[in-house]
């Protein structure tokens, strides 16, 4: 039987997946994030790099900005960030800087993951803050969002195989 914490993590990861689907609808890479404090979502974000032409518009960054505005504070103490893909170095840095206490991610990122895959910036003792990391929540579903998106993108970019 699952613990209450595991059930809560699944519930909020589903919310992050809903954010990822919003990105997919606008042809962004489907990555989503939510920030939860005291059982309430205080920040939401999905990937907006293409839309905004801004390389910092990752789901986590968008959610951190929204949560900070909600709290009127840059310190996101007692908050948990749920994100469908393991945070990259930039996002991991923002997590440390915003003092988020706990990070839950869905699927690992073998190319840029900095919450345990390539390195773990969130548990680096030389920084002035460390975050608890929980990995693999709804991993298959989160990975599937990305796999299907990139599969469809490749199919659209392939030339027709018809005869002339």
UniProtKB/TrEMBL annotation:
Function of the molecule: Catalyzes the deamination of adenosine to inosine at the wobble position 34 of tRNA(Arg2).
Catalysed reaction, written as an equation: adenosine(34) in tRNA + H2O + H(+) = inosine(34) in tRNA + NH4(+)
Active-site residues annotated for this sequence: 60 (proton donor)
For this protein, the record's InterPro entries field holds:
APOBEC/CMP_deaminase_Zn-bd (IPR016192), CMP_dCMP_dom (IPR002125), Cytidine_deaminase-like (IPR016193), MafB19-deam (IPR058535), tRNA_aden_deaminase (IPR028883)
**Chain sites annotated for binding Zn(2+):** 58, 88, 91
Q: Which EC numbers does the record give?
A: 3.5.4.33
Protein name per its UniProtKB record: tRNA-specific adenosine deaminase
Top-level taxonomic group: Bacteria
Q: Per its Swiss-Prot or TrEMBL entry, what cofactor is needed? A: Zn(2+)
């Amino acid at each position: 039987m699952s613990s209450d914490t595991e059930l809560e993590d699944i519930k909020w990861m589903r919310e992050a997946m809903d954010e990822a689907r919003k990105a997919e609808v606008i042809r962004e890479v489907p990555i989503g994030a939510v920030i939860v404090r005291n059982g309430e979502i205080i920040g939401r974000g999905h990937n907006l790099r293409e839309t905004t032409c801004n390389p910092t518009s990752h789901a986590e960054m968008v959610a951190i900005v929204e949560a900070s505005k909600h709290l009127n504070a840059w310190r996101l103490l007692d908050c948990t960030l749920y994100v469908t893909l393991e945070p990259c170095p930039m996002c991991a840095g923002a997590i440390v800087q915003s003092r988020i206490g706990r990070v839950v991610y869905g699927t690992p990122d073998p190319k840029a993951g900095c919450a345990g895959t390539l390195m773990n910036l969130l548990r680096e003792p030389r920084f002035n803050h460390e975050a608890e990391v929980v990995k693999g929540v709804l991993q298959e579903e989160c990975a599937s969002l990305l796999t299907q998106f990139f599969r469809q993108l490749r199919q659209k970019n392939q030339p027709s195989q018809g005869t002339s």
